[in-house]
Amino acid sequence: MIKKLIFSIFFVFLSTQTSDTLALLSNTAILKNSSKVQNILHNHGFKKVFFTTKDHINICGLFLDQSKKYQNKLKGTIIFSAGFYPGTKEGMATFYAMMQDQPYNFLFFDARGHNESSGPLWSFTYLKQYGSSEYLDILSAIEYLNNYNKKHEINPSIILHGVCSGAFHNIKALYKMQRKQLDTKNIKGIIFDSGWSCVEEIVEPTIQAEIKHMLQDSYFYILQKPLTYLITKLYQWTLKKHHKNIESIQEATPAITCPCLFIHSTHDSYAPIKPVQLFAQTIPKATIWWDDSHSHATCHLKKQQQYNEILKKFLDQM
């Protein structure tokens, strides 16, 4: 009787500690601490994995295989693709804290040039081509999972979840797969969170929003307009002409035959919602959540419970 009581107390304590630890993954300061986040995820069974893209970029990811835990009830694997900044696997860890009780495997990875993945990032050559090759990161993640799932006889279903530029790259990856006549039957759904349809449409709003964010509460707020003007002009003189040639995902709509969940803030100043709303109208199996806020790619942090409920409902419907 005493042993059972002691065990019960220990189990409750352990559960509480685990819950508290995962709660840290909703703290943006903690998410920037890669080693701390990795330790938390490692304690929950995540393992570091590597895969190589067709253009020879080495991608580093964190993968959780829950197939033994859920066995034949496992619904598949969710690949999470981060935005341009910070673009890290650790920055996406909140989604595991939110969905830990869901019967899925999880794969987070560093975008090329970020954290533990190889590749350039801030060079002029890379920036002028941004949006043209990043989809290869997604394709290599899908290929890695297809091989892993086949080897271990795991449910092959894959959900693509992208935030900001990650959403853009996911759609382009699916589009490229269909154009190359690659098998897409394992892709069962897409979550398009705070995304955009072409590189050119996102840069200038981001410049304006970021400068406003940095200066609005400082003594230098008076510099906001001139600084925005100068940096916008610099962009127009240097990179914009190149970004005009980067393929939009508007023409990718015929490739999206699976269910697609659109999540976007109506007053997002970084990624304006109007192009996304027009894009969503072209998707036959679209579900939408237009959140009435000013946030960009942070609905999962600021409205975690509502986000989780909408996401779970979407996944259950699939």
Can you characterise this structure?
By secondary structure, this protein is of the alpha/beta class. Helix content is 46%, strand content 16%. It has 2 domains: 262 residues, Rossmann fold; 47 residues. An 8-stranded mixed sheet has the order 1-2-4-3-5-6-7-8, sandwiched between helices. The N terminus is likely disordered.
Using only C-alpha atoms, the radius of gyration works out to 20 Å
Helix content: 40-55%
What separation lies between the terminal Cα atoms? 46 Å
CATH architecture call of the largest domain: 3-Layer(aba) Sandwich
Integer tally of domains = 2
Fill in the CATH topology of the largest domain: Rossmann fold
Shape: globular
> What does the average pLDDT come to?
92
Corresponding CATH superfamily of the largest domain:
Alpha/Beta hydrolase fold, catalytic domain
Strands across the major sheet, in which order?
A: 1-2-4-3-5-6-7-8
The protein's oligomeric status is single chain
Succession of helices and strands: HHHEEHEHEHHEHEHHHEHEHH
Strand content: 15-25%
What order do the helices and strands come in, and which of them pair?
Elements: H1 2-23, H2 28-31, H3 34-43, E1 47-52, E2 58-64, H4 67-70, E3 76-81, H5 94-99, E4 104-109, H6 124-128, H7 135-152, E5 158-163, H8 165-179, E6 187-193, H9 199-215, H10 224-238, H11 240-243, E7 260-265, H12 273-280, E8 286-291, H13 299-302, H14 304-317
Parallel strand pairs: 3-4, 3-5, 5-6, 6-7, 7-8
Antiparallel strand pairs: 1-2, 2-4
